[in-house]
Model the fold of this input.
Amino acid sequence: MDVVNQRDAKPFTTVDGSTIRELLAHRNSSIRQQSLAEARLPRGGATTPHHHAVTEEIYYILVGQADMTLGTETRAVGPGDAIAIPPGARHTIRNTGDGELVFLCTCAPGYEHSDTFLEQPPQPA
Done:
C-alpha cells in the first residue's frame, strides 16, 4: 500500500512556476497512469501561461481565491471549485486572494516537465 503524507513530499518548482509536492505518481508509488500533486502560489503569484500536448489536468481549489484562465475565458475560482483542463488548452492561474493559494492538481497521464510548453507573450503590433 502506497501512502504519502504531504509533509513528507519534497517540494519542487514546475516549468510553469508553481511550487508543488508530488503526492502520488510513477516516481514514488505503484500509480502509472496519473499523478496527484499539491500546488501552492504566493499572494499575487501566477503560473506562466502554458499548455500540455498530451496531459489532461484537473485543478481542485482547497484554500484561497484565484482567477483561472483557460483559452480566452477567465473565471474567479475558490475553495471547492474543480477546473477541467483538456490537453492543448492554454491555461494559467493567478492568486487573487490575501494569502497563499493551495490547490490539488491531477494529471493523466502523470505530470512530466517534458509535456509542459510555455506560451510566448503576445508581440506588440
